[in-house]
Amino acid sequence: MEQKQIPDTLMLEERAAHAINAMIGMSDEEHDHIPFFAANLNHKPAFMTHGDWDYGSTHGRMIDGLVLARHMSGETYGKEVEERYRANLLSFFKEDGLSYRQKNPAYDWEDNANFIDQRAVILSLTSWYIETKDEKVKKAADKHVAALKNVAIKERDIWYYPASEHKKDGWPSSNAINLRLAPDPASFSGRLIMPLLKYHEVTGNQDAFELCEFFSTMIIERSGVFNADGSFNDALAYRSGHFHTRLGTLDAIARFGVFTGDAAKLAFVKKSYDWALTKCTTFGWTPGDLHEQAFEHETCSLVDLIATGITLAKSGYVEYWGVVEKFIRNHLAESQLLDLDWVEDSTDRSNDIKGRKSFYKVGERTRGAFAGYSAPNDFVCDVIEGRGHTNDLQICCLGSGTRGLYMGWSNTITERNGTVSVNFLLNRGSKWLDVSSYLPHEGKIVLDIHQDIKRLEVRIPEWAGFTKIRYTRELAGDTIEGHGREASRWVKKHFLLLNEAKAGEQIVIEFPLSERTTVENAVGQTFQVQWRGDDVVGISPEGKRKPLYTGRKVFDEAPMRTGDYRRVDQEIVW
């Protein structure tokens, strides 16, 4: 790959390579390569623990994350461990087609197919099949989807699951079915729509489409998960308005609305999404729920927020491109564990408990993971409210965080009907053009065009205005200058229209950076936040254990380095 001088600014494909380190490193080689679920980095020394999510949920998240991260980065490290994950996942299926939790030294539970797990299972099988077109994987996925349809309770216009766990001999309680005692619908049915829809798109599987159709109707028309004003139902029976499952359900319904051309579904999602944004910070911290876990932000929730915003933005609500870019640049990037100076590591296995707990090289093995529960200003959440300190890492958040990187990377540059759009001002290479971002140091974007483009448009941040925007276009020694005041230069509110671009052309866009301070509220806690463009460069009060946002440095000129961007001919579309 050709090396050149590029800005030393946020590179999502490199972040994906770091995530691979953690996805491989959290494998427990002493316990059949079952990954650890959680880590306490604040403990001295740090340790990792197994949990009840170790099976379909964890393996599904890791397989999906590894497929996407390798596609982004080209990194091949840890392939042998990944193969163990894939073999393990297939071994969890029983004859009924569902994925079952296994016996574990730490827990003595009955065999059951947990319905939070099933979502991660079909997610991973779908990414695995997109990557390999392996008929063995398709056979397993088809059987799995058929099982999801078979066990659903079917009424005239809605389907649902009456419990969180299904057993080999059926649902735990026929009385629950008769009385319609469905558990939280968002957790067990709503979130399933997203991977089922993608599996239908890829394979044409009609069972998957039917599940999406009846689940989405149930969520919108009958479930009560979302209140009439779009707010989340915070009743205990609805998991206290749990953000990850609600936002994941909104992401799913938005995608299904786009696929079916159902504008009402998109309007439904937008109303709830806008309400959810009022409970989050503008840099991407989300509550865990509306009660006991309110102070515990999950990276999973943030990634659902990113994915839903992207779907809405691509559907015409273009204001969400800027909303999502702030999330990616800030809390997603800050939530990734790269600095290990604060973690006390152990090279000794003597205190390990097989199948339960390990102290062995935890920091080294988890580098690249994403925060399980973070505070707005600290990687470690240990507030006096709620549940206090629990886990610093959760492997579900590692899988989700990696997917969040992919959603940002794959939507930075998009093409439709000959129009190429630069949606996020992030470093990114593609077959059409490369984007070099000098943000947050300079208000400057450089576009190097690789092939002729019929129509090129670039999103300009709303804070940049239009009067002071300048651009130059250089091709074969000829230079053209332009500015944002020109008539017919703006489309879709925030996009600078550059029209036709030629292979070999370089376009430089410059604009002033906004420096401002906002006051952010996170469940009653107030923070003063300093911004430079779309990047948080300071937060007060500062965190105490692993402070976030306090180590960010900005310069008058962007630092440069030798490197290049990864370009792929055919992207995995999620």
TrEMBL record:
It comes from the Bacteria. InterPro entries: 6-hairpin_glycosidase_sf. This is Uncharacterized protein.
